[in-house]
Write a structure and sequence with these properties.
Distance between the termini: 15 Å
Number of helices: 2
Largest sheet: 4 strands, antiparallel
Number of strands: 4
Radius of gyration: 11 Å
Structural class: alpha+beta
Oligomer: single chain
Strand order of the largest sheet: 1-2-3-4
Helix content: 25-40%
Shape: globular
Order of helices and strands: HEEEEH
């Protein structure tokens, strides 16, 4: 379980350790929403499946924090 105030730091650390074609999935306590990060070579794909259904492709490592922060506010508002 990841506290909401540590969500961004924890997910970024774990995403940097991913090997190509590995996936990290983050669910809230109720398990009704999902944020998944998949590594594709030097970039990432972020899947948002919950309140909003969206896919962000070819995200470079330096833009990942911005996307995860935006997605986190939408999917994990509290």
């Amino acid at each position: 379980m990841i506290p909401i105030d540590r969500y961004l730091d924890t997910v970024l650390k774990k995403a940097k350790l991913l090997l190509p074609h590995q996936r990290l999935e983050v669910y809230p306590y109720k398990r009704d929403r999902l944020v998944a990060i998949e590594k594709q070579g030097d970039s990432f794909i972020v899947f948002e499946n919950g309140f909003i259904h969206e896919q962000y492709s070819d995200i470079p490592n330096d833009k990942l924090k911005k996307i995860l922060k935006m997605v986190g506010k939408q999917e994990f508002p509290r």
